[in-house]
Design goal:
The complex is a heterotrimer. By secondary structure, chain A is of the alpha+beta class. In chain A, 56% of the residues lie in helices and 18% in strands. Classes of the chains: A alpha+beta, B alpha/beta, C mainly beta.
């Protein structure tokens, strides 16, 4: 027998209360895990999309905080950017979130400059690519095809225009697999944004260094007022949706921590109240205050640890479930990492210990004679 | 912990008493209630002292003071010459030198009989095996060899009190304090428990201070202290 | 993600132009009405709206998608509304304009009859929805009698109730709006007719940040009529800096040129 088995025995002796406490902690931790993995996954799936395309820098309007920055006329800028050293290619992109048909939830529609490098990383599974910049056709990501129940030869309606599906592709980025891909010119026509793009993607040549990329960034901020060249990571981290998702996950962490600690606090306080006499006996039998405190904190940490483990499992299932809902499919790619799970576990143990400290101190401060008289 | 005699006075026979209680009082409510009121008492090593008296006379309060569970309002208690007020870690002191037996057994319900006996030595430097074998041998000595892994709820009252006696002895204490140890038992079990307690005490040369209402138990003590209104009156030898 | 879509219906709903405001014991805070006017000025914007009507029995119609292109200044406001889907409204147009002190002119034409537009009543609902052309112009902000009616709250946001009354008796007798002072945005607008009946209540249900970061705009609006039916308007796309070409309002220009 040791203190841990003693603490475990105390928890098992009160199964209803222990399981209720564990459930409350598990719920909080599950919310933390689900929201945080989704917030990170959202960020990562966007960054992955940019990385997969081979984009080194992205030129957007400054101050754009939304997922897809505000559109601007790209042609003049494109010419200027193409002349910077080590810039291999500049490609315009227009992105919208549109519903296809009346009932389906909105889906990403990407308009990519015809013939640009952006298309190169995609793997065509069926059909063909658009034959020219104006062909009224669409290629679908493998997930988008599945969600829309469309195959080669079918037609889709985008903002009143009918496009024929001519290809199905696969990408390493989830966001692209869940998207409809059309040429930039077609996207501009459909959305009535002639000559406009959301971003200009810059691909540097193979000899380009970090310094070359920084030079381009610098030149853009000096010579193109109102625009900035940033990396995909910077773009994504400025995104309002990412910011909101992250803020929500932070608030959830805070609330879950407070609630978890309060639940543990309450449970341990009740438990100590019930066990006053028992604590008096332990004191009489020579247990020092420190060992009594340690036992109570062990109990609360065990409750929180178990709650944390269950919460992580439930949170992961919740996030996977959310990923597969019709509304979210192809838009998020929840990330579960072992360090994150360990950190969450650490958080739950922290709140357990935090919630247990005061009750433990109370227990340790009991006068043995008074505790023994307690009925 | 080494106890170095400081100012304890030797008993008439010249030996240092295990307990030397000098003018000890325990007051509550700012002195309005006097649970113990100026008790003077010496108890020799190996002595069996019974404390009796009516309810509220201060028997249990005196036992708590002796067991260092309460701090006297005034006066001093010496254990083998060492004043309680000079002992820094009372919990450690209790775990090394004192064993307790309570009327209501006070076993931990979530622990087996064996584990209950091991509680006082849990923090000691003993190995787990030593803790276990000592506890098992004590329980066997109490006739509970086949009940080691039973939980208190499954034990009879007599069995529980035998576990409690084994627990009080695991740390080889010099002093066992028993507060009406047979008070919750039927006469057969009470007799059995008493025999075990007295027998163990004789075998191990342990000093036993027992609070009891039972005249037949008092009769077996070396000495009976009668408490009345918080004061003690020695009634001389019991048996 | 179409958050870059910017301009909003509310910009249009808050249309107004410079006039002197009648003083009143419950005067509106100085600058508020000017801010409301300023907020809707634009060299060009486009909003794409999905309008779903929900009848009194809570039955939802399939959404009607329209694009509204607009220009607004102190002197002139004009809008082009184009039907996107379903097929029945596709490439059906409505063009409408109003000069500072002039009346609202509105014309409708289909995909094949550009040469034969018909004049329409600006108080009628667009494509059989509760979306009324007259509301686009926010004419009531020009009315001379504007009184502050105390603080209120719409969807959890604090706002100031403002009662607007025209100088002469019109088809609409009174408009009461609750204006978010920080963003000069009407969060709720109640329109009363000459019989003092509440004709419709326009409420901003959801807000998003403008892409230009210059404040908030409506993402979702409801227009409820007096019978309990309502329309939900979702701003799903658009362009805060739409490039208005000379042909964008070509038909309107020709029509107004003719009528002048």
């Amino acid at each position: 027998m040791n203190l841990l088995s003693l603490a475990l025995g105390n928890l098992r002796h009160r199964p209803a209360r222990s399981s209720l406490t564990v459930s409350a902690i598990a719920l909080g931790i599950a919310a933390v895990v689900a929201l945080t993995t989704i917030a990170w996954g959202f960020e990562a799936s966007w960054q992955k999309a940019n990385d997969a395309r081979g984009t080194d820098l992205i030129v957007t309007r400054t101050g754009s905080q939304n997922a897809m920055p505000s559109p601007f006329v790209g042609a003049a800028l494109l010419d200027q950017l193409a002349h910077y050293p080590h810039v291999q290619e500049v490609a315009g992109l227009l992105s919208e979130m549109l519903s296809i048909g009346e009932q389906s939830p909105p889906i990403f529609v990407f308009g990519w400059a015809y013939g640009s490098y952006l298309w190169d990383h995609l793997k065509l599974l069926q059909g063909r690519w658009p034959a020219d910049r104006n062909e009224p056709v669409a290629v679908l990501g493998v997930l988008a095809a599945e969600m829309l129940h469309k195959s080669i030869g079918d037609r889709i309606e985008l903002e009143g225009q009918t496009l024929q599906v001519i290809g199905i592709f696969q990408s390493s980025a989830l966001v692209e697999n869940g998207a409809v891909l059309i040429t930039l010119d077609r996207a501009q026509s459909i959305t009535d944004k002639p000559n406009k793009v959301n971003v200009l993607n810059i691909k540097m040549d193979k000899t380009a260094t970090e310094a070359d990329a920084s030079f381009v960034k610098e030149q853009v901020s000096k010579t193109l007022p109102g625009f900035a060249a940033i990396t995909s990571g910077e773009l994504v981290s400025r995104n309002t949706v990412v910011k909101i998702a992250k803020a929500m996950s932070h608030v959830t962490i805070l609330i879950a921590t407070l609630v978890g600690a309060l639940v543990v606090f309450n449970t341990m306080l009740m438990s100590i109240n019930e066990r006053t006499r028992e604590i008096g006996v332990l004191q009489a039998l020579g247990w020092p205050r420190s060992r009594i405190m340690y036992m109570i904190i062990c109990e609360s940490a065990m409750l929180a640890l178990l709650g944390g483990l269950i919460g992580i499992a439930v949170g992961i299932l919740l996030a996977i479930g959310l990923e597969h809902t019709e509304l979210m499919r192809g838009k998020i790619d929840a990330i579960f990492s072992i360090p994150f799970c360990l950190a969450v576990l650490g958080l739950s143990v922290f709140l357990g210990v935090g919630g247990g400290i005061y009750p433990a101190r109370m227990a340790a401060r009991l006068s043995p004679a008074q505790a023994l008289r307690h009925e | 912990m080494k106890l170095v005699p400081q100012s304890a006075q030797p008993s008439p026979d010249g030996a240092t008493p295990i307990l030397d209680i000098r003018n000890v009082s325990l007051h509550f409510d700012e002195g309005r209630a006097k649970a113990v009121n100026g008790v003077d008492l010496r108890i020799a090593e190996g002595e069996f002292v019974a404390i009796d008296g009516p309810s509220g006379s201060g028997k249990s309060s005196l036992l708590n003071l002796i067991g260092a569970l309460d701090v006297p309002t005034c006066g001093e208690i010496y254990f083998r010459g060492q004043p309680y007020s000079g002992i820094a870690d009372m919990a450690l002191f209790r775990s090394r030198h004192i064993g307790f037996v309570f009327q209501t057994f006070n076993l931990i319900p979530t622990l087996s009989a064996l584990e209950n006996v091991m509680i006082p030595v849990l923090g000691h430097s003993w190995s787990a095996a030593r803790q276990r074998s000592k506890a098992a041998s004590l329980l066997s000595g109490m006739g509970l060899a086949d009940r080691l892994h039973c939980f208190p709820a499954t034990l009879s009252g007599g069995e529980r009190q035998r576990v409690a006696i084994a627990r009080s002895m695991i740390n080889d204490p010099g002093l066992i304090l028993a507060d009406e140890p047979t008070g919750s038992l039927d006469s057969v079990n009470a007799q059995q428990v008493l025999e075990l307690l007295i027998g163990s005490r004789e075998e191990r040369q342990i000093t036993l201070v027992m609070v009891t209402h039972d005249r037949s138990i008092s009769a077996r003590a070396d000495r009976v202290i009668h408490m009345h209104d918080g004061r003690n009156e020695s009634l001389g030898e019991g048996g | 993600m179409n958050r870059q879509v910017a301009p909003l219906l509310v910009i249009a709903l808050l249309a107004g132009c410079g006039q002197s405001w009648a003083t009143d014991s419950r005067e509106t805070p100085p600058g508020l009405l000017e801010a409301v006017q300023q907020a809707r000025y634009s060299d060009g914007f486009e909003v794409r709206l999905a309008i779903t009507t929900v009848d009194a029995q809570k039955v939802r119609s399939p959404p009607i998608k329209i694009a509204v292109i607009g220009q607004a200044s102190a002197e002139r406001q004009r809008f082009l509304v184009r039907g996107i889907s379903p097929e029945a409204v596709r490439n059906h147009y409505l063009v409408t304009a109003k000069n500072a002190a002039g009346p609202i002119n509105a014309f409708e034409y289909g995909p094949d009859d550009e040469g034969h537009p018909i004049s329409v009543d600006p108080f009628a609902g667009l494509f059989k929805t509760d979306f009324v052309i007259w509301d686009l112009f926010g004419t009531w902000w020009d009315w001379p009698r504007q009184t502050a009616e105390g603080l209120g709250e719409v969807n959890g946001r604090r706002c100031l109730w403002v009662r607007s009354r025209p100088a002469a008796l019109l088809q609409i007798k009174e408009v009461v709006s609750c204006v978010d002072k920080e963003f000069a945005l009407a969060l709720s607008t109640k329109v009363y007719d000459s019989q003092n009946r509440l004709r419709r209540t326009i409420r901003v249900e959801k807000l998003i940040r403008k892409n230009s970061n210059a404040g908030l705009m409506a993402k979702k609006i409801t227009i409820a009529d007096e019978r309990g039916a309502y329309s939900e308007i979702d701003v799903y796309g658009g362009d805060e800096q739409y490039q208005v070409e000379s042909e964008t309002f070509g038909v309107l220009e020709r029509l107004l040129g003719k009528s002048n």
